[in-house]
Specification:
- With 297 residues, the chain is α/β, with parallel strands linked by helices.
- The protein is 41% helix and 14% strand.
- The chain has helices at residues 15-19, 47-59, 74-80, 102-109, 125-137, 147-152, 157-161, 172-179, 186-195, 231-244, 249-271, 278-288; strands at 11-13, 36-40, 64-70, 85-89, 114-117, 142-144, 166-168, 199-202, 208-210, 216-219.
- Helix 2 packs across helix 10 (231-244), helix 10 crosses helix 11 (249-271) and helix 11 (249-271) crosses helix 12.
- The chain is globular and about 45 Å long.
Length: 297
């Protein structure tokens, strides 16, 4: 009982905090210096989630983005996406990843600087096995979102067995399925991050981030216009991009959360909370990152 009464002390995320995380770019660098990220996302009928995740990584500055998606979703995404490399994966009759995709995905993961799993993947036994295998075997930072989180709900032990840091990005319902706690307080969220050795980015009106070593951060940017399908996928792509660029996953989570919310605020100011879209947030993100140019052009 005493533990539940403890008050969580948050570090508040603001522009100055994020400025201390994002470096200006080395003028002599090439694309390999800015990270190769792999996004395992999408399924037939859920191509939007994969699109926004991949574009979030592109707009956040990744050197190379590879999107591995079921072959039934590939024709749509290959047409929509110009910058990412879009790789078709074996799938079942419903357009979800099949077990035959796992060896290819493991090979791709071995060449990635960061891995995102989950946006629009759908749910099946095979998807669950693939998610668990990738989380356990990855030798790079891993971000798990959406259906990836749902797949881990019955296999939380995988988080403790992971070789590299795992960042989870659940909203309230996803965290409820993952933890069994429907209305968690800060103490419960902090305990989950500690006990499962993960970085927990709990999305909401005031997104909170908890780390395995007991640190807690709170973000104040963002607005209700962001509560639209695709917004969370953009965030997941931004986060994996920063991890792939070599930023510590906990600090990357803080920066991604603030920049995501600030891009949403800029979109709302320009287009209204009603009329803004996740695509508009991607455009505003580009403007927001202008301050990190090496010089004025």
């Amino acid at each position: 009982m005493a533990a539940s009464m403890e008050k969580t002390v948050f570090r508040e995320i603001d522009q100055e905090f994020v400025d201390g995380i994002l470096p200006c770019r080395d003028p002599d660098a090439d694309k390999n210096a800015f990270g190769r990220v792999l996004c395992v996302c999408g399924s037939a009928g859920y191509t939007g989630a994969a699109y926004f995740a991949a574009q979030g990584a592109v707009r956040m500055g990744s050197g190379v983005v590879t999107l591995a998606t079921p072959e039934k979703a590939w024709p749509v995404l290959a047409v929509k996406l110009n910058e990412p490399v879009v790789r078709p994966m074996p799938c079942d009759g419903d357009g979800l990843l099949s077990r035959e995709a796992l060896p290819v995905l493991l090979s791709l993961t071995g060449r990635a600087d960061a891995l995102l799993i989950g946006c629009g993947l759908g749910r099946s036994d095979a998807v669950g096995e693939i998610v668990c295998a990738l989380v356990q075997s990855a030798r790079c930072p891993v971000v798990v979102d959406a259906d990836g989180i749902n797949a881990l709900a019955a296999h939380k032990d995988v988080l403790r067995q992971a070789a590299q840091p795992v960042a989870l990005t659940p909203h309230a319902a996803e965290f409820g399925r993952l933890s069994g706690i429907r209305q968690p307080d800060d103490t419960a969220l902090a305990a989950f991050a500690r006990d499962n050795r993960c970085i927990l980015l709990h999305k909401g009106h005031r997104t909170r981030i908890f780390t395995p070593d007991g640190m807690a951060y709170r973000n104040h940017s963002g607005n209700p216009g962001m509560a639209k399908g695709g917004s969370g996928d953009v965030l997941a792509g931004m986060l994996v991009s920063l991890c792939g660029q070599g930023i510590d996953p906990a600090r990357a989570a803080c920066a991604a959360a603030w920049l995501h919310g600030r891009a949403g605020d800029m979109a709302a100011n320009r287009l209204s909370e009603y009329g803004m879209t996740p695509g508009d947030m991607l455009c505003e993100l580009s403007r927001l990152l202008h301050r990190y140019n090496t010089r004025e052009w």
